[in-house]
Amino acid sequence: MVIGIWMAFKEITQFYIANWGDAPWAGLDNFALAVDFNAPVGEALLRSFFTTCLFTVLSVGLCWCVGTAAAIFMQDNFRGRGILRALFLTPYALPVYAAVITWAFMFQRDYGLVNHVLTDQLGLTGERPFWLIGDNAFVALLTVSVWKGWPFAFLIVMAGLQNIPKELYEAAAIDGAGVWQQIRRITLPSLAPVNQVLILVLFLWTFNDFNTPFVLFGDSAPESADLISIHIYQSSFVTWNFGSGSAMSALLLLFLLVVTAAYLLVTSRGRKSSDG
């Protein structure tokens, strides 16, 4: 981390890769270039930042919703629950590269399973759409992210549900509370401490996700799916401007630290007020 921050203050380009120590001192020029949103570099970084924010909000929200719904559903005893629980955890257990490569084949336009189902089987699209280029690339990236992320939310929420006494549900049922009322007044409030940690972890993982877009699109993601992690990689290892890329990384680290600190402050105050 220290070396990365030090590189942000140096003018390290392809001409100084052999000996980084000889690179001239750039001061704050790399940071000024990154935050100059009227220039091409800053404008592209800002667009990538907003894309990443939208992607993170949607991915974390969907992962939490699907994982929580699945965990609540799995609380009831029924035949085959153990097998179904193991199947739910399969996306989380698979290696990321193997899973994303499989999705990349499924998203192929002419021979992919996704277009085969949507176009040939269901007839929902007139023509076979491109999923790995253009605007649809964002949908493809979001789909893969939710598919491999929701089992983690399912696992954490399912563990949190074990700590809720069943007597609370029995008493609520006697009082005439329905299923949705029990979930709204018992389940969700009891899961608040678990969800606070879960959402923070999902946010950090998703915002920093590099493997998924890199394996899905390669080192040049479409503009609609240009996450900030892959954008910094392109600035560093494609254009060979390590000083600028390091400055962007340092700014990203600062942003995540501020957001995390603010989130922990707000959630801790909310917990204290509810305890009081």
Q: Could you name the key traits of this structure?
A:
single chain, 276 residues, mainly alpha, 71% helix
Can you offer a commentary on this structure?
This protein is about 70% helix and about 0% strand. It is globular. It has 14 helices and no strands. The chain has about 280 residues and is mainly α. It has helices at about 1-10, 30-35, 40-75, 80-90, 90-95, 95-105, 115-120, 135-160, 165-175, 180-190, 190-205, 210-215, 230-240, 240-275. Helix 1 packs across helix 14, helix 8 (about 135-160) runs antiparallel to helix 11 (about 190-205) and helix 11 (about 190-205) packs antiparallel against helix 14.
Summary of the model, kept short:
The chain is mostly helical and 276 residues long.
Using the CA coordinates, give the radius of gyration.
Answer: 23 Å
What is the average of the pLDDT values? Answer: 88
Largest sheet: none
Q: How far do the termini sit from each other? A: 40 Å
Number of strands: 0
Gross morphology: globular
Strand content: under 5%
Poorly predicted tracts of residues: none
Which range best describes the helical content: under 10%, 10-25%, 25-40%, 40-55%, 55-70% or over 70%? over 70%
Element order, helices and strands?
HHHHHHHHHHHHHH
Oligomeric grouping of the chains: single chain
How many alpha or pi helices?
Answer: 14
Structural class: mainly alpha
Helix/strand layout:
Blueprint: H1 2-8, H2 29-35, H3 40-73, H4 81-88, H5 90-93, H6 96-106, H7 113-121, H8 136-161, H9 166-174, H10 179-190, H11 192-207, H12 211-217, H13 228-238, H14 242-275
Helix pairs in contact: 1-14, 2-14, 3-8, 3-11, 6-12, 8-11, 11-14, 13-14
